[in-house]
Amino acid sequence: MKILLTQDSGRLAKELKQLLAERPLLVEHSQRAQKRSGISTDAVATASFGASTGNDFSVLHAGLTSFEALDFDIPSTPLSWIFITSARTIELMPAHKRSALVRAAEHGTRFACVGQRTEMELCKLGIELSIPSAHNARSLLDVFLCSTTAPEASAMEHAVWLPGSQASKRTLAHGLQIAGYNVIETPVYRPYARTESPPQYIGADVVVVTSGSAARAYAQLNSAKFDYEQSATAPVIALGEQTAQDCEAAGLSLAAVASSPDALGIYEALKRAFEILDFSKLSHTNSASLGNVSSDNNRASSNSTSHNTSHDTKEVKK
Predict the structure, then answer these.
(1) Are residues 22 and 165 in the same domain?
(2) Same domain as 128, residue 87
(3) How far apart are CA 136 and CA 155, in angstroms?
């Protein structure tokens, strides 16, 4: 089975490959998929992979987007907080502006961020977080509002700065504004889709979409192809609910949502996806397609729970 991650970095793909080797998945034709495709219970054995190990999975990675650093100015007004929602925001900052972040921290500006990688980049600069990092902007907003009191009148004179992607959703900014903070949003970089789909995506069984820009790029790159068989997108697993919404908006077949942006989150989402994907057309690993994905009503969400299903026994006529 071929799994593709929409990232240039191979760190997450390597961690997922290791996890699949340590915790074999039972990849089989699910009961719901059987009913949808009309396969009998007796045929399940021939449509099943059985227990697959990490060696049965090909976990690859290839980015679908490129990023252009933008020219920007750091706000001159006093900053009470700086929120950084991606490690790329720091990576694409010029050195002298990263130094400005350090000076801001030294003068009492507090920092908050999304993701462990972002936290690591801040640590490299010697900047400590004032509140724990979160998996996404919504969670960070909740942590922040629970950890701090409403801004006083004197604090209103100090702004909250949100540097980041030009394509960022306004979830965090809007929530902070509602809470009474003076929010300054600054685009630091711009994501854009690459002109050609990387060859690694040919024959992918599942694509793990790691961002909204990657979702739009995957849909765009495939719709631009003329060969229908080549342009058909594979089922996708989204990292987080916001990316899931972006996948659906782009017209992708969403199979499951990873509740956390790490290897364990993807692993758990894969298990849920295998419950609804139609494996009837698979005869070996690395096949071209996993078949159809169930409708939105059958989508395996990150907070779904497992259900015990009863199996009706059928008499076999001799």
Answers:
(1) no
(2) yes
(3) 25
